[in-house]
Amino acid sequence: MLDKCTAQLITRKDAETRQLDRIAQMAGFATIEPIASRRQFDAADKPNRINFFLAHEGVGIGPLGAILRAVRSREEIGVRFAPVILFAHDMDFEAYLGLVRMGFDDVITLPDKLTMIKSRLCNQLSWLQVYYETKDYFGPDRRRMELGPPSGVERSAIPHSHVRHEFIRNPSTGIRIERSIIRLPIKREKSTHDRRHADNGHWERKAVA
């Protein structure tokens, strides 16, 4: 499947570029393109081709966060819903969870077997993916590992508005949005298009793409 996809490498040092380039080559990506400038990033959208953004932890937490926000704020579906994978060297569990909470589609620790890396990359393709969109976040469910809240932070008991996007990344035809479900807090006037969910305190409105 990866032989129909593009790998965009986001690195800071030549050694990091060589490392990710070798991984991408061995995984079988059709095209591998290091991104060294904003111009290259802006040209990253490839019609009918899935772009993987492969980032190295050496870029730094601050720049990585900025990269995630830049990808997720793009209007092009092929970029906004593209898989952003972080490659990081072995770390403690808390550091790993912190990276997951940032919104990466996957965090792959190195070294790892190529077969395992390729399998995890292919997991981003050809089956239903789910993103959540709130006022300050867009990306995969940060609770997907059944994580508790960050240290010192309590989960709010008050339901918040969010959109659940369901989509498929098809390596042959690109990204297709299956549906988007808008969930609004219960404190709103009921309309004929809404359905109350008493168990989670939300109204649900479905918008099919």
From TrEMBL:
Superkingdom to which the source organism belongs: Bacteria
Disordered, as annotated region: 188-209
UniProt protein name: Response regulatory domain-containing protein
Organism of provenance: Devosia marina
